[in-house]
Amino acid sequence: MCGTEVAIMAVGAMISSYAAVQQNKAMAGQYDRQAESVRQRAAVESERLRRKAQKELARQRVRYATSGVQLSGSPTEVQINLAKEGELDARLNSWDGNQKAGQFNLSAYKERAAGTNLLLNSAVKTGQKSAAELLKP
């Protein structure tokens, strides 16, 4: 093979690799968007859980007030526990959303790394083939 043929072969391999890298980048972008979507849904759901707990506390206060119960001692402890449970539910929901989003972020990272590795491997292999062809007697 002459130098021109080796160069054409190298350019072809690099173009093919570049297309594959672009596909990896597109997939990584998709994973990033999914991660952001999961985070946003978790934030909205956590806020909904907090509001639900606050509404339940308000209903309970009204029930206590209409029945003449004083908000001290046991009724207060019930209210405190209800508030803590509502906040715990919201935080667990946020944590779960962040865990799921983290998995999407990890997938995006792997896609980007795979694309970079593909490009580097292609360059190395093309360089080896080119050198071997040019060194033939």
Question: How would you portray this structure in words?
Answer:
With 137 residues, the chain is an all-alpha fold. Helix 1 packs antiparallel against helix 2. The model has no long low-confidence stretch (mean pLDDT 84). The radius of gyration is 30 Å and the shape is rod-shaped. The chain has helices at 3-67, 74-135.
Note the main attributes of this structure:
137 residues, mainly alpha, single chain, 2 helices
Structural classification: mainly alpha
Number of strands: 0
Radius of gyration: 30 Å
Coarse morphology: rod-shaped
Measured by DSSP, the beta-strand proportion falls in under 5%
**How is the quaternary structure best described?**
single chain
Low-confidence stretches: none
Cα(first) to Cα(last) distance is 10 Å
The largest β sheet comes out as: none
Indicate the mean pLDDT: 84
Portion of residues within helices: over 70%
Q: What's the number of helices?
A: 2
* H/E topology pattern: HH
